[in-house]
Every structure is written in structure tokens, then in C-alpha cells.
Design goal:
It is a single chain. By secondary structure, this protein is mainly alpha-helical. Helix content is about 65%, strand content about 5%. The chain has 21 helices and five strands. Strands 1-2-3 form a three-stranded antiparallel β-sheet. Strands 4-5 form a two-stranded antiparallel ribbon. A hairpin with a 2-residue loop joins strand 1 and strand 2. Helix 4 packs parallel to helix 6, helix 15 runs parallel beside helix 19 and helix 16 packs antiparallel against helix 19. The longest helix is centred in the first third of the chain and has 35 residues. The protein is globular, with a radius of gyration of 29 Å.
Length: about 550
């Protein structure tokens, strides 16, 4: 295998052949240990001799080799699966290139599947019976759903069953009461194509009536309320919601949100709520790709939302981005980094957040010329991301939880008008529309708060005026309430804190003064607002 810039390559056929040959050898050696070596040692010990536990050690080593060979096979199959659905021409023995993250995710799914092979086989057997019998009577199909629902607490059984169905067959199962089983299939993380694609297509497709052509007598058609119920059930299962969101394509997201959402407006907030749960759940390294996929699906096409549609969805949009953005902020340095090193990180994060948020701000800005939508969206502070969204579900990680909570408290503070922007950080230039800036600032504040959380974690926040060797960094441990309280104080009183310590001159060092948090935070906001400024200036010149 070779790799480059997040891509890896291998020749799957070579990996599979290697695994097959080596596995056969390991199985033969295991059989020899069991049938020849162990009896010989037992006979030797029975004659009164002591013997080193040779057979057990050999068996253990052979088993280790066996599982290594199976892992090689897993990787080979994972490379093959990354090419499913792609039209490629590859010479015999040529390598397959794929994203490292894709290969890892598929390999993990295969490992989980094999660890639950009995459940997987049973689910596949039920699907095979369903597809073979091809029932046309309601009672026959309902019997299959009833049998499926008897395994509703076995996610691998459910995943195996739905993985074998096309969109019409998935629709029939959901229409006849298989929603909980489908959500369990997503929870397993092993629901692959065509099942996952079929669900996305089903949600993105129009509601069909059995009295209108073309009619498939073998299909029971899903109702709009059943679509809504599927999204609600997914939102109550964060693990399933995460896998569901990752399985959707930008095209499916666009069709669900714009085409079906235009006909059935209640679908849109349900979809956004499910996606918000998903970005709380998926691993941090997967949050930004998922967030940008949602942005592409909702805002990259020609479809536009009206003023009234924006007004009805404003809270759901803000919740999604205010939840997702903090989880895209990675490490903000290591203990003892210089102010310049930390400042460079702050610039990069600000630029990233601005680029990620701009399509959303641009779409809201374009909704109407007098910016009434933006002003209406600014009427309240950020929605309570934690409250009531995932009943009984896990909260975001402590750092993101504290950062979002501090951002909410800052905006909801006594005497602070959110429409005035972030007072004390960056003044809004006179003579330019401020509504887009203020919406941007409200949502980006959650990401900025996360940078403060990360700086606390890396032990690079000190009391103002701290000198080299004289002060210890401020720490808050893992108490979310203490962290949130500290971040809120940093937002309200940035002059009380400095980032890093002074670096004295000498020994090859040029010397640096540690900035207070007000000037250090300005680096984030200057970079983050660059995309907003460029867009507004372009609009002004075009007008």
C-alpha cells in the first residue's frame, strides 16, 4: 500500500490472494496442532515427563497470524467497495486509489459485520426469502415486517436485511411498519448500498399514490407522515442519525430539502434537526466534511428560499451551524508555544470558519434586498442547542458543550443587544450593511468560543501581565460548568487574559510580547470576516 495527501492505494486482488493462501496455511497448522502436536505432548506428559506448554503457545501464535490474514482480506475488500458505483477502467494488477478515510470506514464496517456474522446471516436469509417469494398480498408482506420487527434490537440483523433491498422494497417495509428496524440498521454502522441509497432516494422522491400510474402492485407507498416519523426517530438515536447523515449525497439532500420540502414544509426543520444531532455525534474529524456536504446540498444549487421560508427556518439553520462549527476546531497548540505560533493558528481557524460559513450567510443575504430576513434572524440569540433536541441522547464533548453554552450566555447577557454585533472585538465599518455581519457573528461566535476552549486545554491562557516563569497557566479541568464560566468571562473581559507568555530576546530569539485576548481574538475575527467583506464589497460595486 502507498499513500499521498489523504489518499491510499493497493492492488485488492493481491491482498485477497495473499490472505487466502496464508489463511489456508494457518488453518492447516491449527489442525495439525489440534490433531498431532497436542496428543503427542499429552502422551509425553502422561509418561511422567514435564513439558513446556508448546502446543498452547503455537496455537496462540497461529491464531494471531490467522486474524492478521483476515485483516489483510478486510482491507482488500474495503478497497474494492470504494469503487462500487464508479465507472473505471483498470489494467490487471493496477492499483486502486481511494480516500484513506473511506477505506478505514468500510474496513471497520466489515469487521463489525464479521464480529456479528450470525445476526448478519440471519438478516440476509430473511431478505432472501422476501425477495424470492416476491409477495403481492398485503398480509404476506406484513408477515415479513412482523418477523423483521421481532429482531428490532439486533442492529446487524436489520442492517443485513435492508442492505439487500432496492428503494421500492425499502419503501414497502417502512410503509408497513419497519421504521424502528430501519433506524436500528443505521445504528449498526453497517448499512451499505443499495439499502442506504434506497432510503435517501425514498425521502427525496415524491409521495406516490397507488391509484396513479405508474403503479407497482408489489410496492406499498410511504406517506408523508411516515417520512416525517422516520426523521423524528432518527433524531432520537444520535448514532443512527450520524450514519444516516453521512450516507446522504449532496444531491439527495438538495432534493429532500428543496423539492420535497417545497411541497411539504414540515420536512425541512425535521431534516435540519436530524442533521444537527448528526454533527454532534460523528467523530470530530468527520464533522467538517459532513457540514460542508450539507452546505453544498442546501445552498450550492439554483434553488432559493423565499423570505417567509427563511424566517420559518432561521432557528433551525442557526442551530445546525452553531453546533457544527465548534466541532471543526482542532487543537490550538501545545503548552509553551510562542504568541506568534499561536497567532498563526488563530489566523488559520478564522479563515476556515469564514469559508465554511459564507455560503449560509450569502444565501440569507440574497433572500431579499432590504435584509429583513437577516434582521428577523437576529431578533433572538442562538437557539438552545442542548435543550430538547436529543431526549436522553449524549451531549457534545465537554469542550464543544462549554463553548456553545458560553456563546449563548454571552448573547443573552443583560443589556447586550445581539443586533449590535460583538462589542469590543471588531467595530463594524460605517456605511455598509451590517445585518449579514451580525448574523455571521452570532453563529461564528460559537466557533470562536471553541478556540478559547482549545487554548485553555493547551494551557496557553494566562492572567494579563504574566511574565516568563512567574505565572502558571489558567486551567479548568474537565468540569463543563467551570469551563463554560471561564470562557464566558474571557468573552466579556478579554483584557483580563493574555495568550502565551512573553518571549525574551537572546539565545537566537527575537523576543515577543504576549498579546491580551482582545487583540489576539481580533486575528480570528479579521480572517473570519474577510469573506463577508469581499462579498459585501462585490455586491456594492455590482449595484
Amino acid at each position: 500500500m502507498t499513500s499521498r495527501k489523504g489518499m491510499v492505494s493497493a492492488v485488492p486482488e493481491n491482498l485477497l490472494k495473499y490472505a487466502q493462501v496464508c489463511t489456508q496455511g494457518a488453518e492447516q497448522l491449527q489442525s495439525w496442532v489440534r490433531t498431532v502436536l497436542t496428543p503427542a505432548i499429552n502422551a509425553y506428559e502422561a509418561s511422567g515427563h514435564k513439558c513446556y506448554i508448546l502446543d498452547g503457545n503455537v496455537a496462540q501464535q497461529v491464531a494471531s497470524v490467522y486474524y492478521t490474514d483476515r485483516d489483510v482480506r478486510t482491507v482488500g475488500l474495503a478497497f474494492q467497495k470504494t469503487q462500487e458505483g464508479k465507472v473505471t477502467v483498470r489494467a490487471q494488477g493496477a492499483p486502486v486509489w481511494a480516500k484513506d478515510t473511506d477505506v478505514t470506514a468500510i474496513a471497520r464496517q466489515l469487521q463489525l459485520q464479521w464480529a456479528n456474522q450470525a445476526s448478519w446471516n440471519a438478516g440476509a436469509a430473511l431478505a432472501a426469502r422476501y425477495l424470492k417469494d416476491h409477495p403481492t398480498l398485503l398480509k404476506d408482506k406484513k408477515a415479513f415486517v412482523d418477523e423483521l420487527n421481532r429482531h428490532v434490537n439486533d442492529p446487524y440483523f436489520c442492517a443485513s436485511f435492508f442492505s439487500k433491498l432496492d428503494s421500492d422494497q425499502v419503501e414497502t417495509m417502512v410503509a408497513l411498519g419497519g421504521t424502528q428496524a430501519l433506524v436500528k440498521a443505521y445504528e449498526s454502522g453497517a448499512l451499505g448500498n443499495p439499502g442506504a441509497k434506497a432510503v435517501g432516494d425514498m425521502l427525496a422522491g415524491p409521495i406516490r399514490q397507488p391509484t396513479l400510474p405508474p403503479v407497482n402492485l408489489d410496492t406499498n407507498y410511504i406517506t408523508q407522515e411516515q417520512k416525517n416519523a422516520l426523521l423524528r426517530t432518527l433524531a432520537q438515536n444520535p448514532v443512527a442519525a450520524g450514519h444516516f447523515a453521512q450516507s446522504l449525497s449532496p444531491e439527495q439532500l438538495s432534493r429532500i430539502f428543496h423539492l420535497e420540502g417545497a411541497q411539504h414544509p414540515e420536512l425541512r426543520p425535521l431534516l435540519l434537526s436530524t442533521l444537527t444531532v448528526a454533527v454532534q455525534q460523528v467523530p470530530e474529524g468527520q464533522v467538517r466534511p459532513l457540514m460542508n456536504k450539507v452546505t453544498q446540498g442546501l445552498f450550492a444549487g439554483d434553488e432559493k428560499l423565499s423570505r417567509s421560508e427563511w424566517q420559518s427556518l432561521s432557528k433551525a439553520f442557526k442551530q445546525f451551524y452553531a453546533t457544527a462549527l465548534p466541532r471543526t476546531i482542532g487543537s490550538m497548540g501545545s503548552p509553551g508555544e510562542t504568541p506568534n505560533q499561536l497567532g498563526g493558528r488563530m489566523d488559520q481557524v478564522g479563515k476556515q470558519v469564514g469559508a465554511d460559513l459564507m455560503p449560509f450567510i450569502r444565501a440569507a443575504y440574497d433572500a431579499d434586498p432590504d435584509h429583513k430576513v437577516l434582521r428577523d434572524m437576529l431578533a433572538g440569540a442562538l437557539g438552545n442547542v442542548e435543550g430538547g433536541l436529543v431526549p436522553g441522547g449524549p451531549l457534545p464533548k465537554i469542550a464543544a458543550d462549554a463553548a456553545i453554552g458560553a456563546a449563548q450566555a454571552y448573547l443573552q447577557g443583560a443589556g447586550l443587544d445581539p443586533a449590535k454585533g460583538l462589542i469590543g472585538l471588531i467595530p463594524i465599518p460605517e456605511g455598509t450593511p451590517v445585518a449579514a455581519r451580525n448574523l455571521n457573528d452570532q453563529v461564528a461566535l460559537s466557533a470562536y468560543s471553541m478556540t478559547l476552549s482549545r487554548l485553555l486545554e493547551s494551557h496557553n491562557i494566562y492572567p494579563a501581565g504574566a511574565k516568563q516563569g512567574e505565572e502558571q497557566p489558567i486551567t479548568v479541568g474537565n468540569d463543563p460548568a467551570a469551563k463554560q464560566s471561564r470562557i464566558l468571562d474571557m468573552l466579556r473581559h478579554p483584557e483580563k487574559y493574555q495568550v502565551g507568555k512573553d518571549v525574551p530576546e537572546g539565545e537566537g530569539r527575537n523576543g515577543e510580547s504576549a498579546p491580551d485576548l482582545r487583540s489576539f481574538g481580533a486575528r480570528f475575527w479579521n480572517q473570519e470576516r474577510t469573506s463577508v467583506e469581499e462579498f459585501l464589497n462585490q455586491e456594492k460595486s455590482d449595484g
